[in-house]
Specification:
The structure is a single chain. 45% of the residues lie in helices and 14% in strands. By secondary structure, it is an alpha/beta fold. The protein binds zinc ion (ZN). The site of zinc ion has 3 residues, from loops.
Length: 500
C-alpha cells in the first residue's frame, strides 16, 4: 500500500481547549481510559454515541500502528441518585424496587450493555474493571489522601478537602473552566450537609445507613466508596500514574473528571492525563434527550421501531453510520428524516463493501492508464486520513469514503476497467475502501439471514430463470424484497444487493 497517511494525529484536549499533536507518553503504547456505564438500567442511545466515538478512536489508533490498552470500567457501586454525595445508590435503589440482589441488577444490565455494544459493532475494551472488584485499592487511596492531609473523616465518612488541595497550588475547576468562588456561590445555598468542611468537598468514602444494601468494612465505617474514586484507582492501576487519553461524555467533565484529577494529583503529585476528550450530546428533534420529555430511546426500541417518535425501525448499522456523520464534538440531532437519509447512505456503502470483495484485478495491456482517476483516488485516500487526523473528523472522512465508493461502483458496473487504474492503485482503492469502512468506521454488512441461504436462493433464481419459470422467479424476488434486498440481474451477472 502506498504511504498516504503522512500527517500526524491531532486531538482536541479539553484541558487546554486546543487541538494538540498527539504524542503518547511511551509510543507505540497508548493508554486510554473511558468512563463506562453505571449498570442500573438499559444503556440509552446518548451513551452509545459516547462509546462509539471512543470505539472509532480505539480502532483508528490501532490502525495507525499504536498498541492500545483500552480500559473502560463498569460502575457497580457508589454512583448515587442525583450524581452527588447524598441519596440512594442507583443500583441499590433498583435492587430494592425489583426485589433482587444488587449483583443481579449489575449482571442484568452489564449483559444488556454488552449486547447493545455488540449490536452496534463496538470492540470490547482490553480491560473492563468493576468498582466492587477494586475496593482494596480504593480504601488504600483514601488512607493515603488522609495521610497527605488532603482528606478528612467526618462522622464515619471521608471527604476530599478542596480548600487544602487548592492551598497546595492546585486549581480545582481547571478542566471544566470553573472558578472556585463561583462554584462556592452556586453550591452554598444547596448545602445542607454539615459533615463537610466546605460544600465543594466530595465523598471518598460514605458511611452506609442501615438500609443501604451495599456496604463493606473500612477503617472509618461500614460503608461504600464515593463514585469518583473508582475511576482514579482503576485508571492508574492499569495505565500508570500518567496515561495518554481519558474520555467520557461532556456531562462528566464536572464534577466527575474534575474530582478524578484532584484525587490523582493529590495521590501522586502528577497530572494523571495528557489528553482529556469529551463527546457532545445527542439531541432529538432539537431537544435534549431525556426521560422526562419521553424522547429518550433505548437501542432495542430503535431497532424495533417501537417508540412513538419513530416512523420506522432503523438497523444498528444505519444508526452507527448516522452517528459518524457528525464529528464527536458536535451535537448530533436525531430525527426521522436524518435517519432515513442515513439508511440510504449506509445501504450504498454496504453494497460497495460487497462489490469490493468480489472485484479482482485483470491486467490488460491494451488499456491505457487513466492518470486523472489514479491521482483522484490517491488524493481521496490521503483526504480520508487528513480528516481523521484532524481530531477524528468522521463527517469529512465519510465524504472521502463516498468518493472511493464511486470508483468501486464504476468497477463493479463495468464502467471502469481495473487495468485503467494500474494494479497498485486498484489494490490501494479496494484495500483502503474496505479498511476505512470496516476496520476504522466499524461498519459491516447486515443481513437478516446468513450468506449461504441468500446464495442458495440466488442459485434457485438462476435455475428458474433458465427454465423460464417466471412465477418462481417473481417469488424469489419477493423473498429478497421482504428483507430489504434486491436481485440485480444484468448482462454480466446476477447478484443481490441492499435496496437503496
Ligand atoms: Zn469515571
Amino acid at each position: 500500500m502506498a504511504e498516504t497517511n503522512t500527517q500526524p494525529l491531532k486531538i482536541f484536549n479539553t484541558l487546554t481547549r486546543k487541538k494538540e499533536l498527539f504524542e503518547p507518553i511511551a509510543a507505540p503504547y497508548v493508554g486510554m481510559y473511558v468512563c463506562g456505564p453505571t449498570v442500573y438500567n438499559n444503556a440509552h442511545l446518548g451513551n452509545i454515541r459516547t462509546f462509539m466515538s471512543f470505539d472509532i478512536l480505539y480502532r483508528y489508533l490501532q490502525h495507525i500502528g499504536y498498541k492500545v490498552r483500552y480500559v473502560r470500567n463498569i460502575t457497580d457501586v457508589g454512583h448515587l441518585v442525583g450524581d452527588g454525595d447524598v441519596g440512594e445508590d442507583k443500583i441499590g435503589r433498583m435492587a430494592k424496587l425489583e426485589k433482587l440482589e444488587p449483583m443481579e441488577i449489575v449482571q442484568r444490565y452489564t449483559n444488556d450493555f454488552h449486547e447493545v455494544t455488540a449490536l452496534f459493532n463496538l470492540l470490547p475494551p482490553s480491560i473492563e474493571p468493576t468498582a466492587t472488584g477494586h475496593l482494596i485499592e480504593q480504601i488504600e487511596a483514601v488512607t493515603a489522601l488522609i495521610e497527605k492531609g488532603l482528606a478528612y473523616e467526618s462522622n464515619g465518612s471521608v471527604y476530599f478537602d478542596i480548600t487544602k488541595y487548592n492551598e497546595g497550588g492546585q486549581d480545582y475547576g481547571k478542566l471544566s473552566g470553573r472558578i472556585l468562588e463561583d462554584l462556592l456561590n452556586e453550591t452554598r445555598e444547596l448545602d445542607g450537609q454539615s459533615e463537610k468542611r466546605n460544600p465543594l468537598d466530595f465523598a471518598l468514602w460514605k458511611k452506609a445507613s442501615p438500609e443501604h444494601i451495599m456496604q463493606w468494612d473500612s477503617p472509618w465505617s461500614r460503608g461504600f466508596p464515593g463514585w469518583h474514586l473508582e475511576c482514579t484507582c482503576m485508571s492508574t492501576k492499569y495505565l500508570g500514574k500518567q496515561f495518554d487519553i481519558h474520555g467520557g461524555g461532556m456531562d462528566l467533565k464536572f464534577p466527575h473528571h474534575e474530582c478524578e484529577i484532584a484525587q490523582a494529583k493529590g495521590l501522586t503529585g502528577q497530572d494523571p492525563v495528557r489528553y482529556w476528550m469529551h463527546t457532545n450530546m445527542l439531541t432529538v428533534n432539537g431537544q435534549k434527550m431525556s426521560k422526562s420529555l419521553n424522547n429518550s430511546f433505548l437501542p432495542a426500541e430503535l431497532v424495533a421501531g417501537s417508540h412513538p417518535l419513530l416512523d420506522q425501525p432503523y438497523s444498528p448499522m444505519t444508526v452507527r453510520f448516522f452517528m459518524m456523520q457528525s464529528q464527536y464534538r458536535s451535537t448530533l440531532d436525531f430525527s426521522n428524516d436524518a435517519l432515513k437519509a442515513a439508511t440510504k447512505g449506509y445501504k450504498r456503502l454496504a453494497n460497495g463493501m460487497r462489490t469490493a470483495r468480489m472485484l479482482a484485478y485483470n491486467a490488460d495491456e491494451a488499456i491505457a492508464l487513466d492518470e486523472k482517476k489514479i491521482a483522484d483516488i490517491e488524493k481521496t485516500i490521503a483526504g480520508f486520513y487528513s480528516a481523521m487526523n484532524d481530531d477524528l473528523n468522521t463527517s469529512v472522512a465519510i465524504g472521502h469514503l463516498f468518493n472511493l465508493l464511486k470508483y468501486v461502483n464504476m468497477l463493479g458496473l463495468g464502467q471502469l476497467n481495473a487495468a485503467a487504474l494500474g494494479e497498485a492503485t486498484f489494490q490501494d482503492l479496494i484495500a483502503h475502501f474496505t479498511i476505512f469502512s470496516e476496520n476504522i468506521l466499524g461498519l459491516k454488512e447486515e443481513k437478516s439471514e446468513g450468506d449461504a441461504v441468500l446464495e442458495g436462493m440466488l442459485n434457485l433464481y438462476r435455475e428458474y430463470k433458465l427454465v423460464r419459470n417466471y412465477e418462481k422467479v417473481d417469488e424469489i424476488r419477493a423473498y429478497f424484497k421482504k428483507q430489504g434486498l434486491v436481485i440485480r440481474d444484468t448482462k454480466e451477472k446476477i447478484d443481490w444487493a441492499y435496496e437503496e
